[in-house]
Structure formats: C-alpha cells, structure tokens
Amino acid sequence: MRKIAVLGSTGSIGTQTLDVISRLPDDFEVVGLAAGNNIELLLEQVHAFKPKWVSAANETLAERVRAEVPAGVRVLSGEAGLTEIAGNSGADYVVCALVGSLGLTSTLAAIEAGADIGLANKETLVTAGHLVMDRAKSRGVSILPVDSEHSAIFQCLNGEDGKAIKRLLLTASGGSFRHLGREELRNVSVADALKHPNWSMGAKVTIDSATMANKGLEVIEAHWLFGLPYDQIDVVLHPESIVHSMVEFVDTSVMAQLGNPDMRVPIQYALTYPKRVASPASPLDLLKQGSLHFKPMDFERYPCLRLAFEAGRSGGTATTVFNAANEIAVARFLRGEIPFLAIEDIIGNVLAKHATQAAPSLEAILETDAWARKEAAETE
Ligand SMILES: NC(=O)C1=CN([C@@H]2O[C@H](COP(=O)(O)OP(=O)(O)OC[C@H]3O[C@@H](n4cnc5c(N)ncnc54)[C@H](OP(=O)(O)O)[C@@H]3O)[C@@H](O)[C@H]2O)C=CC1
Ligand SMILES: CC(=O)[C@@H](O)[C@H](O)COP(=O)(O)O
Ligand SMILES: [Mn+2]
Predict the structure, then answer these.
(1) Which of 35, 57, 106, 379 supports an S-S bond with 82, CB 3.0-4.6 Å?
(2) Does 175 contact ligand 2 (Cβ within 6 A)?
(3) Which 3 state secondary structure label does DSSP give 266?
(4) Over the stretch 126-145, which tens digit does the pLDDT of each residue have?
C-alpha cells in the first residue's frame, strides 16, 4: 500500500486523481491533500479520504478547515503548507496537480523526501527542468508523466534505448479557436476561449491550448522528461485528440498510443506503473470513429509555439520567462483586462527584454520568475 499526497486535489486533475484512487483502495492510502480556495470540496475530500495532512491557500481558509476536521489532522496553509505535505507527510508518492510554477518548490520537496512524483504540473519542468530532473536522478525517484502526450510517449518508449528514437511527435488539437484565422482572433471572448473541443480541463490549460502555448510548454516538458534535443521533437495537428502522441524510431517504425480523451487513463497509468489495471474510461471504438486526421503545424497561426521552441533552444532562464510571462498574460486575459492576441505579444515582449542565464540556480530561477511576472503585468 503506497502513501499518497495530492497537491491541487480540488482541480480537474486532482479530482480525477482521487476518483482513480477511490477505485484502488488496496493500493493507496491518502495521507495528504492540498487545495487552494475551494474549501467546500476540500472538506468533502477530507471526510472521504481521511488524510492526516491538509493544506489550503491561506491561513483564513485553513482556520475554516480546522474547525471542521477531526483533531489530529494537521491543517497548514500557503506555499509552506504545500512543501510540508510534499516533504513531511510520510507520502512516498506525490501527485503534483497544481497549476503554474507554484508547483516547483513542493515538487522539489517531495523529491528531496524520496517520494515518486506523478507530474501533471508541466510548468514546474518548464521553469526549472534541469533542477527537477537532476535532483530526481540523484535521489533515485521516478517522475511519472500524467500529461496525456507524455504518458503516451512514455508508453510508446516502454524502456527503449534513447538512441533508437528518431523523433517524438506530440499531437495538438488546435484548441478552441482552431477554425478561426488570425484576423478573427482579435475580438474572441473569454467564454469561447474556455470551450475546448475535446477535453474538460482547468481554465489556465484550456487557454494555453487555444494559444498553443500548451503545446509549447509540452515540447519543453518532453525535452526534460525524455532527454531529447528540440530538433527531435515535432508537433502535429490532430483535431480528434485520439492519438495522444507518437514516437518514430530509427528503423522507421512509429508507435502511437490511442484512446478516448479521458485523463483518468494517464493518471491511473502514472499511479499503477508498471501494472495496467481496468479503467472506467469508455473503450475506444475505431470502427465507430471511422477516420483520424493529421495536419502540419502552422507556426504563423500559432506564434506561441514558435516562441516556446525559441525559448527551449536558448535554454537556461529563457523557459522560466516564457512560462511566467504566459501565466500572467493568461490570468490577465481571464480577468478581461487584455484581448486574446495580447497573450502572445506579452510573452514575446518579455522574452525580448530578457538576457538568458545558463544553468540557473533555484534562487536565480525564482528571481527570474518574479521579474518576468512583473514585466508581464506591466506590459500593455
Ligand atoms: N486538466 C487537465 O485535463 C490537464 C491538466 N494538466 C496540467 O495539470 C495541472 C493542473 O491543471 P488543472 O487540474 O486543469 O487545473 P485546475 O485549475 O483545475 O486545478 C488547479 C489546482 O491547484 C490548486 N491551486 C491553485 N492555486 C493554489 C494555491 N495558491 N495554493 C494551493 N493550491 C492552489 C487549485 O485549488 P482550488 O481550486 O481549491 O483553488 C486546484 O486544486 C496544470 O499544470 C495543467 O497544465 C495536464 C494535462 C491535462
Ligand atoms: C489533456 C491534456 O493533456 C492537455 O494538456 C491537452 O494536451 C490539451 O489539448 P491540446 O493542447 O492538444 O489542445
Ligand atoms: Mn497535454
């Protein structure tokens, strides 16, 4: 029985993770749950899973939780609460389902404590991939991908030698505005941007999908997870989101992982690896599906993906800036402060002002992240 903590338990990935865990009662004991502001849902989860460690976004919310949970449950708050649960709750498996680079310090704390990581929080690898991967290697912990594309690649690789890989092919749905040309993107609404064609997800990743910044984050995530240069990572448009990604090998064989879009499948695989167990997801019926489509990526239509490749190739703090500027720009768009197309402008402008620092320390990353956030908040 593994002791598991879920950071971001009230979000899209967090709730689906708990759904998966509830079907595997002999395999997992929930020892820690961390949420942000959704205290009602957090309390329901505490009553259902009985963790000994709980955290909320701030002390006021934590007080409300303390009043409702049994004595003996430790209720913490803020980033310190996240790192405490990640590193000191006794969890030997931590699911990081937080959104944004907020997940970095707690992921590092979990690694330091020797816990394996189920990683949904791609921003952590984008902002500090070298630190996360180096520390995981030296502590001997596994980083198991939850993101659907990376889970697909992980399954296709199945232990193959890195030298056998010709390239990774990440699939991209095209997002909520895939049928619109660039001119038509000028006045799109927040409500329409939040309508992903295939997946029901949190707001930030849904907007990232519409700008294609999500695929940019995923290209950088793949670079760190699978240790391949950017020249060996490609993106292909695939509107159905049935092929979750592919690997082409040097002998021309292409392996793909397919399934209906349901995050409980990659979440479960990250939890039960190397075992496969039955899933509540609906089986893929290719005969009913009939056809699948693939188109080349259009970097003019989706400049955020071009910026992500450029930042990835620059390396060092460039990807920290790409991520932080994107997080702030998306938050501003969601608040109705800026138009949709300003997201890519802000990322491009903040990156253009930044002098990349190679192999940054954690301190340098946190400083760069703060600088890029301030710039992105002030850029018109
Ligand atoms: N959703 C999906 O299908 C997929 C998501 N991902 C990635 O997984 C990650 C999570 O995405 P998703 O689940 O959609 O996001 P959501 O917005 O649905 O959930 C985010 C979670 O983080 C918590 N949180 C936010 N701010 C804080 C804070 N300051 N302190 C503590 N907790 C906080 C939220 O708490 P609360 O709600 O209580 O405020 C919530 O539990 C992202 O990196 C995303 O890119 C990857 C693949 C698919
Ligand atoms: C489900 C998942 O993994 C998301 O990150 C997904 O990738 C979003 O889809 P697109 O970015 O392809 O629109
Ligand atoms: Mn994905």
Answers:
(1) 106
(2) yes
(3) helix
(4) 999 999 999 999 999 999 99
Which ligand is located closest to the Cα atom of residue 171? Answer: 2
- Count of helix runs (H) and strand runs (E) in the chain: 16, 12
Is 330 near ligand 1, meaning CB less than 6 Å away?
A: no
pTM score of the predicted model: 0.98
pLDDT averaged over every residue in the chain: 98
- Residues 332-362 pLDDT 10s: 999 999 999 999 999 999 999 999 999 999 9
Ligand 1 center from residue 290 Cα (angstroms): 34
* Measured distance CA(267)–CA(265) in Å, rounded: 5
Is 3.40.50.720 the CATH number for 2-145? yes
Enumerate the β-bridge partners of residue 24.
none
Gap between the Cα atoms of 32 and 92, Å rounded: 11
- Does the beta carbon of 18 sit less than 6 angstroms from any atom of ligand 1? no
Query: Which residue's CA lies nearest to atom 40 of ligand 1?
Result: 11
Note whether 69 and 89 are within 8 A (CB): no
Q: Which of 213, 126, 148 is nearest to 204 (CA)?
A: 213
User: Which of the ligands is closest to the CA of residue 302?
Assistant: 2
- Ligand 3 centre and the CA of 218: distance in Å? 7
Q: pLDDT per residue over 196-206, tens digit each?
A: 999 999 999 99
Which pLDDT score is estimated for 135? 98
Cis peptide before 280 (omega within 30 of 0): no
The number of the ligand 1 atom at minimal distance from the alpha carbon of 199 is 3
User: Order of strands across the sheet with 233-237?
Assistant: 254-258, 243-249, 165-172, 233-237, 295-296
Is residue 268 within 6 Å of ligand 2 at its C-beta? Answer: no
Q: What is the pLDDT of residue 380?
A: 74
Domain boundaries defined on the chain? 2-145
Structure tokens at 39: 């205290």
Which tens digits make up the pLDDT trace of 86-132? 999 999 999 999 999 999 999 999 999 999 999 999 999 999 999 99
Question: Among all ligands shown, which has an atom nearest to the Cα of 173?
Answer: 2
Q: Following DSSP, what letter does each residue of 195-258 receive, concatenated? A: --SS----HHHHHHHHHTHHHHHHHHHHHHHHT--GGGEEEEE-TT--EEEEEEETTS-EEEEE
